[in-house]
Write a structure and sequence with these properties.
This protein has a single domain, classed as Ribonuclease H-like superfamily/Ribonuclease H (Nucleotidyltransferase, domain 5, 2-Layer Sandwich). The protein is globular, with a radius of gyration of 13 Å. The protein contains three helices and five strands; from the N terminus they run βββαβααβ. The chain is α/β, with parallel strands linked by helices. One of its GO terms (biological process) is DNA integration. GO terms for molecular function: nucleic acid binding.
Length: 102
């Protein structure tokens, strides 16, 4: 099984939508191969991020390290608790320097 050791997470949005349901995109990128998965989400919340990480977990297992920006979904205590409980080292990039996010 391929294991994602270093993963970059990004939330994009709001984006124009014809159906007004999914206006954000949650991306999961393997930092080594740059292979990226895109998931439409209804809101940029910590719970949406956790749900998509759990989906990735069923396929690849937990990453050793997650790199994110300092968006509210990734700084929420709910997200921090999830990472801690799953043994994931969560790194947050410096504000204003997006190139640090993969």
């Amino acid at each position: 099984m391929f294991h994602l050791t270093h993963t970059v997470l990004i939330l994009f949005g709001p984006l124009p939508s014809t159906n007004k349901i999914y206006q954000h995109i949650f991306t999961v990128m393997d930092a080594f191969t740059k292979f990226t998965w895109f998931y439409p989400v209804k809101s940029p919340s910590a719970q949406e991020a956790i749900d998509k990480l759990k989906l990735e977990q069923t396929i690849f297992g937990n990453p050793s390290r997650i790199i994110t920006d300092r968006g509210s979904a990734f700084t929420a205590s709910e997200f921090e608790t999830y990472c801690s409980d799953e043994g994931i080292h969560h790194l947050k990039i410096t504000t204003g320097i997006p190139r640090g996010n993969g």
